[in-house]
Amino acid sequence: MTSPVIPPSPSAADYAAEGDRPLVPETDNPIGLFQDWMAQARASEPNDSNAMSLATVDAEGRPDVRIVLLKGVDPEGFTFFTNLESTKGVQLAAHPVAALCFHWKSQRRQVRVRGGVTPVSAAEADTYFASRAAQSRISAIASDQSRPLADRAVFEQRVAEISSIYGDDKDIPRPPHWGGFRLAPTEIEFWQDQAFRMHDRLRFYRKEGGGWATVRLYP
Predict the structure, then answer these.
(1) 169 pLDDT exceeds 90?
(2) What whole-number distance in Å separates Cα of residue 54 and Cα of residue 80?
(3) pTM
(4) 185 half-sphere exposure, CB direction, 13 A CA radius
(5) How far is CA 140 from CA 18, 122, 127, 144, in A?
(6) CA end-to-end distance (rounded Å), the chain
(7) 216: exposed, middle or buried (Cβ count in 10 Å: 0-12, 13-18, 19+)
(8) Residue 1: CA count within 13 A, CB half-sphere
(9) What is the dihedral of CA 127, 132, 133, 138, to 10 degrees?
(10) Interatomic CA distance for residues 56 and 97, integer angstroms
């Protein structure tokens, strides 16, 4: 039984009104293609075009997923930052593999990424932490991320206390429990919506010895 809160499947007229969309282009540079798609999403998404789902596994092998923000992408991989003592930080330390998923509704596109994860250097974490607004740095210091909080007022009081120490000081130090990770991709899949669910999928996967191979997938 369908639910009234779930949108109905598009009709033939709906698909016809949307028009055709370009297929995922052939290339030997998936990072470059991702950067192109990210730039287009940044120009069209209403907010957080760099938002991505990050999937990890816990000690029992159970999957866990949440939205985080991508903060860097280059041939070395996809970089994000977090409290290292958070659930995702602990899971990545124990099982350094992860999957990412970007979904850009305005472009009707999706990118999925899988690979191994390593911590970024202390210098890289310092540089990004220093670029954040002072109050964002203070909240990062104050937060015992993912752990139980008896009352919101407790956190707000801690933020106030740390704010009284640093104020708007530009030299607020990065706490040792805060850092970043880089996912080095072994697979990247680009997905482009098409009419009548005839979506276009192009998967890149690492070849032995380096470089990328590609395969088109049925939708």
Answers:
(1) no
(2) 10
(3) 0.93
(4) 25
(5) 44, 16, 15, 8
(6) 25
(7) exposed
(8) 2
(9) -90
(10) 7
Domain ranges of the chain: 12-131+175-217
pLDDT band at 26 (very low <50, low <70, confident <90, very high): very high
Q: Give the C-alpha separation, 106 to 130, whole Å.
A: 32
Tens-place pLDDT, residues 73-131: 999 999 999 999 999 999 999 999 999 999 999 999 999 999 999 999 999 999 999 99
Q: Among all chains, which residue has been given the structure tokens 């192109």?
A: 36
**CATH for the stretch 12-131+175-217:** 2.30.110.10
Closest CA to 93 of 104, 82, 101, 103: 82
- Bridge partner residues of 119 (DSSP): 181
**E strand map for the chain:** 51-57, 63-69, 72-74, 77-83, 97-104, 109-119, 178-192, 200-206, 212-217
Distance between CA atoms of 117 and 201, rounded to whole angstroms? 25
Token pair of 69, please? 């923000």
| Per-residue pLDDT band at 3 (split at 50, 70, 90) | confident
